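Justification of resources, computational component.

The compute hours requested in this renewal are based largely on the per-chain cost of generating structure records like the one below. Each record pairs the submitted sequence with a full structure-token output. That output is archived, and it is also reused by downstream analysis tasks.
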Amino acid sequence: MTLTTALALAGLLLLLALGLHGWWQTRRAQPRKAVPGPATTERVEPALGAAEVTAAPPEPTALRMAPRRVPRLDALIDAIVPLALEAPISGEMALAHLPPTRRAGSKPFYVEGLDAESGQWEPCTPGHRYGELQAGVQLASRSGALNEIEYSEFVQKVETFAEAVGASADVPDMLEVVARARELDGLTGPLDAQLTVTLRSNGVAWSVGYVQQVAARLGFVTGAVPGRMVLPAAEEGAPPMLVLSVDPQAALAEEPQAAAVRECVLVLDVPQTPESAEPFPAFHRAATTLADDLDATAIDDQGQPITLHAYAAIGHELQQLYRQLEALDLAAGSAASRRLFS
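The structure output for this chain reads:
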């Protein structure tokens, strides 16, 4: 072999090595993608009160319980207006005259009837007859306490409805209702807890599909909002136990498999799930497992890694929070707690 040939061969080998190195660097920079596997039935986040759409994933399998009853008015968290009827009315008549929207400002309000046969209060239903009615507006929510303007709007809508169905409304005093609302908001505001952990990639970015595939192994299903995955509650129609989210813009990309994300956020909305369902152990387990499977670090809202000691401290604080909610008759996962902390 001549010197010229040897130099040419060495040059070719160098070019090949540089090409392979560039290809490897490009490959490393691409987001991890979901690995194709056997066809599975996609599940979606169930709507509140709706039946589940498809079968649960093989692991873990959640026990499904009976559907929740629609929460009725509660004097603890609602300002209630009795509506005395001149004569019993049908559910159809009541429904025909309800306001088109059941909100006063940011606060929801409800109208119920006392069923003439069962003697139970219930949302007005076709085919039923009601001897009494009542309306109620929620005193507080995560948007704050009911204010004077919201209460005035509620009263106006209730009085219009009452006149249409032949009822007389016994409206509570505005100042007393607003004072109650502020007191309730002051007591419960400090007890509103939403635990959040950010999972940040230690190196290679992920595709949205890859995150979904990893989360599905823990029982997460596709949510109603782009980029949202949920761990369904055991109780049919109840709010999800956990929510895992990625950037919705990446989820809406034309090629989600190519859209790179480096973070996802795991959330536990404490007042929405009963303590007996062990939501915090599920939260801790999901955070640590996802961190391992995604090669990520779990960090808090200050950007600091969350240690085992930190998880233990959070668990201790949650126990105190649960006891405080119970002392106010607002146990986590109860109908009143779910409505109030929404």
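The CA atoms of residues 64 and 234 lie 5 Å apart. The two ends are 81 Å apart (CA to CA).
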